[in-house]
Amino acid sequence: MPLTSHDHPPQTITSGYCKRCKTIHNLGSDKAIAGCHRLMTELDSEDATKDYLFGPARGKMFGVMECIQPDGSLITLRAFSGQFDGLWEVEGWVPPLFNIKDFFRKSDKVEKQIKTIGREIEMLAPHSEPWLLLRKKRRQLSQALMLEIHNLYQLKNFHGDTATLRETYYNRNGIPTGTGDCCAPKLLNYAARHRLTPLGIAEFYWGRENKSGSRQHGSFYSSCREKCAPILGFMLCGLDYLDEK
Ligand SMILES: [Zn+2]
Ligand SMILES: [Zn+2]
Predict the structure, then answer these.
(1) Residue 132: how many other CB atoms lie within 10 Å
(2) DSSP at 192
(3) How many Å apart are CA 245 and CA 226, to the nearest integer?
(4) DSSP letter at 87?
(5) How far, in Å, are 6, 28, 53, 91, 183 from residue 62 at the CA level?
(6) CA 186, CA 82: separation in Å to the nearest integer?
(7) pTM exceeds 0.85 for this model
(8) What separation in Å is there between the alpha carbon of 175 and the centre of ligand 2?
(9) What is the pLDDT of residues 173-213, one digit of tens each?
(10) Would you tell me how many other CB atoms lie within 10 Å of the CB of residue 153?
């Protein structure tokens, strides 16, 4: 489909450093732009979606990936970052990197405990010994939960290798909240799991700009540095190999 001139966004790139190949793997956006514009039109045509994206919750990053299926036909995948209006799974969109049931089984119980401790803390004198102890206990609980949640994330790449978030994330600093929930990891994981060969991927922001103003309605963005770059090298690995076959 030919694009009109105003449809040409700056080329964006989805990339990350791969430990295995000691190089940066990347995937361009060209082949996914037409799919993005189709999605933008759809997002604009639904009143409930528009109200949500331009309301107090603000806008969202969306991602589109154009792939070849094993039978040679094309397929367009779509993803939203994080949750959509409180939901992790929505029909017509690729799922998150973890099993939802396992996620809630792990998090519900611990989050209840954390809330209970929070109420107890409020009733104690600040900086008293019990206050400090309970604060420490709460921190330990939430750190242990994070660890368990990160281990629920199963990342698959195009060699057929699977690893958890913790095994994949190579940065020395801790894993930021929301890592693995952006559109690019969701789309790549789905493609690798279903033997699809990605041709291009693009992510854009739709809705009311975010609080810091770093994300603007209708703008395209490359994959993010802090959360995605440290896992995308692993996730993109094996794509070149698939191309050569
Ligand atoms: Zn990201
Ligand atoms: Zn590699």
Answers:
(1) 13
(2) H
(3) 33
(4) B
(5) 20, 16, 11, 15, 6
(6) 10
(7) yes
(8) 21
(9) 789 989 999 999 999 999 999 999 999 999 999 999 999 99
(10) 25
